[in-house]
UniProtKB/TrEMBL annotation:
<dbReference type="InterPro" id="IPR012338">
    <property type="entry name" value="Beta-lactam/transpept-like"/>
</dbReference>
<dbReference type="Pfam" id="PF00144">
    <property type="entry name" value="Beta-lactamase"/>
</dbReference>
<dbReference type="InterPro" id="IPR050789">
    <property type="entry name" value="Diverse_Enzym_Activities"/>
</dbReference>
<feature type="domain" description="Beta-lactamase-related">
    <location>
        <begin position="9"/>
        <end position="312"/>
    </location>
</feature>
<dbReference type="InterPro" id="IPR001466">
    <property type="entry name" value="Beta-lactam-related"/>
</dbReference>
<protein>
    <submittedName>
        <fullName>CubicO group peptidase, beta-lactamase class C family</fullName>
    </submittedName>
</protein>
Length: 339
């Protein structure tokens, strides 16, 4: 039986006690077995109660792998053609933008759609390069993919997630939409200086960022993936094929193609990949919240954590080497600073 991560627990307790990060929800696998869950610090300025296994955090972009999993299932069932233009499935997304009409689910999942990550200020949404040309992290495209998934399945995304992932995996504290039952035990985000971020209560699922969950729930999803669950062998293997090398950019976005490809970090169908390490990963960034999931498919080691602070990603330098040993070029690619 693997040893529990006592040193990591001590580190997380000390870090949250220092006030740098108010609260952390953490879980890890070793050789595919759940070996550690640590809940440290407080839920936020709104509630000084301790974080526990049921404290719901914003998972931000850790939503995307979950949506990718459902998309692959719909593809297996002959409902969603990953190579068919989304325009042909559910209609126009950007009026007057003819290039966007070539965007497919494959482009969305590999971040090669040509659409931006977020729409800033009042900049009109548009494509910046031909779909499939190169990598540029683009969250906005997931709204179109969501529309297509809901159209072909005749089900809202929240129902798809509940029927295909949350209920089968007993993820009882997870939803893509705010639930009133979360009101009694949820985390509030905090800025770098500790100022609280007003809590969002999302009423309609958003495929790129709206997942609310716990580390205990999300590690169940990761464990399911490492056990090759929920997909045929052919789909599962295709999920992790490196499709395109990433580029640096700001927040991994490179709309004008100035950055060189990173030969050590690639993207599959919804996951970031370290091909030489056999690892997959994803990070999350919502205002006042940070999240990271990392797993090694060969060793079956994995870790996920959620933090209610803009500093939360910076736990990586202590946590990742102990939880998922090995070299991790994705940390440098993400340009994660020290705590």
């Amino acid at each position: 039986m693997p040893e529990p991560m006592i040193d990591l627990n001590r580190f997380l307790v000390e870090t949250t006690a220092s006030g740098k990060i108010p609260g952390v929800s953490f879980a890890a696998l070793r050789v595919g077995t759940r070996i550690a869950e640590h809940y440290c610090g407080v839920r936020g300025v709104h509630d000084r109660s301790s974080v526990d296994a049921a404290t719901v955090f914003e998972a931000a972009s850790l939503t995307k792998p979950l949506v990718a999993h459902i998309a692959l299932q719909l593809s297996e069932e002959g409902l969603l053609d990953l190579q068919k233009p989304l325009f042909d499935i559910c209609g126009e997304f950007i009026p007057g933008d003819s290039i966007s009409r070539r965007i497919t689910a494959f482009h969305v999942l590999t971040h090669t759609s040509g659409l931006p990550n977020i729409v800033r200020d009042k900049t009109p949404l548009r494509t910046y390069f031909n779909p499939g040309e190169r990598f540029s992290y683009g969250s906005t495209a997931f709204a179109w993919l969501q529309r297509a998934m809901e159209a072909v399945s005749a089900s809202p995304l929240e129902m798809l997630a509940r029927e295909r992932i949350f209920d089968p995996l007993a993820m009882r504290h997870s939803s893509l939409e705010w639930q009133e039952r979360f009101a009694v035990n949820h985390a509030q985000g905090h800025e770098w200086d500790g100022q609280p971020v007003p809590k969002r209560r999302v009423q309609t699922a958003q495929a790129s960022w709206s997942l609310l969950t716990t580390a205990s729930d999300y590690i169940s999803f990761v464990q399911h993936i490492l056990a090759r669950g929920g997909l045929t062998a052919a789909s599962y293997d295709q999920w992790f094929v490196p499709r395109v090398n990433t580029r640096q950019g700001d927040d991994a976005e490179d709309l004008i193609g100035q950055s060189s490809p990173d030969l050590n970090v690639a993207w599959g169908l919804g996951w970031g990949l370290e091909p030489s390490q056999g690892c997959f990963f994803h990070w999350g960034n919502n205002p006042g919240f940070r999240a990271l999931v990392f797993a090694n498919r060969a060793t079956q080691d994995a870790v996920v954590w959620f933090a209610n602070s803009d500093r939360g990603m910076r736990l990586v330098h202590k946590v990742l080497p102990e939880a998922v040993p090995g070299e991790h070029p994705a940390v440098g690619w993400l340009r994660i600073g020290s705590l």
